[in-house]
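Appendix C: a fully annotated inverse folding record. The material below is reproduced so that readers can follow the format used throughout the book. The structure is listed first as tokens, followed by the designed sequence.
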């Protein structure tokens, strides 16, 4: 099929959006490369400490007026942003495919999920209502007012460049705060377009800011006394060793969502015809670069006939996945984000083989790319059998299109395998039994639990949770919990004289 038109046609140097102005950075400039074509599509600045200082100053300046803007008026800006996102839906989605490599349908799904968060935040006049008790003692009333705090930093990962900052930014601004978004410098283009649309939607200067860059910008946010809190989504080492402790040390509130190693548990009574397609999306969707991706496939029971026929079905379907440039609508899996990530994934495949796993499908070799693209960042679906859960490959986050298969005697053993892993993001069970499903969701230590669902992605009006090494904090992104995160409960008690 023919390629869809690329929205990014000329290489521009991106600018920061600070206090309502597009400002050139004085920082080092690096290329943004499309992983399918291996061509540069933009240049992004690695902004300096002074530039993050300037963004905080602009946001602090905007806060008093924005805080006193009524929730209804604030929600009107969000309604307008939603309209603009709908009008530019296809362009925004294609930018994500160009910068990240995911298929156009995956990008459209990502755009939709982002917009849904804007829609939910439009309900802020009711979402941020306080509560009231009359006569807590005779003639004395007490009430709570949810109050915005000021400036928040929002730090994004590379794998969902557009959607992830929208898990929090709409709620932050709806509640009367100002934001500084720092996207991953690997994929800065869709956030740049979003900031343009936020500007067009009528947010006053300084309410919605964008600063490109890396660690200097993150460190600048973490150290700045003018930033009240941080929302971080990324890997566990950064969440656990950098973001969470440093927010604690400087008294900032924090949401720090980390990595994952998700187990998909297959009971012999599952509906095979529905389960296999769900597993394909789970393990190989977004080229396996999703915190909700399946990583370990656990087949329960000692029936070899079931195991063999199930694995034949899985392997056969995986081997037919069409790999290529995501702007070709026939493509089902794009490249991984860059060569470094590809090498890291290959390292895991090799370590799995060295530690006793059997290669059933080799994405390094058995790969046919549709179209004429260099194979630099492409990797086909890979299946490793006989993986032990305590090996590198069975226990660590690979973040690529690799399925590690293991067997468990019974459900108890499968649940023990899930719970022995240090992560707790999104485990799932495939079964027809209500009893197995209840047992699994009750006992498994995971923030998201799937029952016959391979990608457990909470809707915008539910929290995006995680447990153990997948999450550091108390409140979560999205919906009501985000509203609570971005507000302080002010308690007032009044005696009627
Ligand atoms: P990452 O931790 O490398 O980077 C995330 C952000 O932190 C980027 O903006 C980066 O510039 C910044 N950063 C990286 N190292 C830093 C450091 N030492 N000091 C300060 N800032 C630093 O993560 P990534 O590779 O971009 O994203 C992939 C990871 O994100 C995976 O582990 C994935 O599971 C996780 N993820 C989690 C969720 C979730 O909801 N739990 C969602 C999406 C992705």
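Designed amino acids, in order:
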């Amino acid at each position: 099929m023919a390629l869809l038109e690329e929205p990014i046609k000329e290489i521009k140097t991106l600018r920061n959006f600070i206090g309502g102005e597009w400002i050139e950075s004085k920082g080092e400039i690096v290329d943004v490369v499309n992983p399918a074509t291996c061509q540069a599509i933009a240049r992004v600045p690695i902004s300096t400490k002074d530039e993050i200082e300037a963004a905080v100053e602009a946001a602090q300046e905007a806060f008093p007026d924005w805080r006193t803007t009524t929730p209804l008026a604030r929600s009107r800006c969000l309604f307008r942003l939603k309209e603009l996102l709908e009008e530019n839906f296809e362009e925004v989605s294609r930018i994500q495919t160009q910068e990240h490599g995911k298929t156009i349908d995956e990008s459209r799904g990502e755009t939709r999920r982002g917009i849904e968060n804007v829609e939910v935040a439009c309900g802020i006049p009711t979402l941020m209502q306080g509560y009231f008790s009359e006569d807590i003692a005779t003639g004395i009333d007490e009430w709570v007012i949810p109050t915005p705090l000021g400036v928040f930093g929002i730090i994004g990962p590379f794998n969902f460049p557009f959607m992830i900052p929208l898990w929090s930014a709409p709620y932050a601004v709806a509640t009367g705060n100002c934001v500084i978004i720092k996207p991953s410098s690997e994929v800065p283009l869709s956030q740049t377009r979003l900031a343009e649309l936020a500007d067009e939607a009528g947010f006053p200067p300084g309410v919605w800011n964008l600063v490109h860059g890396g660690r200097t910008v993150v460190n600048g946010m973490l150290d700045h006394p003018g930033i009240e809190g941080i929302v971080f989504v990324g890997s566990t080492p950064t969440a656990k060793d950098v973001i969470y402790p440093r927010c604690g040390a400087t008294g900032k509130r924090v949401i720090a969502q980390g990595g994952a190693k998700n187990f998909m548990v297959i009971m012999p009574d599952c509906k095979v015809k529905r389960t296999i397609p769900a597993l394909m999306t789970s393990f190989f969707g977004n080229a396996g670069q999703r915190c909700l991706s399946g990583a370990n496939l656990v087949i329960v029971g000692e029936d070899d006939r079931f195991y063999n026929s199930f694995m034949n079905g899985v392997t056969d379907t995986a081997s037919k996945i069409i790999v290529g440039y995501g702007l070709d609508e026939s493509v089902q899996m794009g490249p991984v984000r860059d060569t470094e990530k590809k090498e890291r994934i290959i390292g895991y495949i090799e370590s799995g083989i060295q530690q006793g796993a059997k290669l059933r499908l080799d994405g390094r070799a058995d790969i046919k790319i549709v179209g004429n693209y260099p194979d630099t960042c492409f990797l086909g679906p890979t299946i490793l059998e006989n993986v032990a859960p305590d090996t590198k490959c069975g226990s660590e986050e690979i973040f690529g299109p690799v399925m590690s298969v293991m067997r468990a005697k019974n459900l108890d053993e499968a649940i023990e395998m899930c719970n022995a892993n240090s992560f707790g993001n999104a485990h799932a069970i495939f079964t027809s039994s209500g009893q197995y499903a209840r047992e699994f969701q009750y006992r498994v230590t995971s923030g998201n639990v799937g029952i016959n669902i391979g990608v457990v992605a909470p809707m915008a009006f539910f929290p995006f949770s995680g447990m153990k090494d997948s999450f550091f904090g108390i409140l979560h992104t999205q919906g009501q919990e985000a509203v609570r995160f971005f507000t302080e409960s002010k308690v007032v008690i009044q005696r009627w004289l």
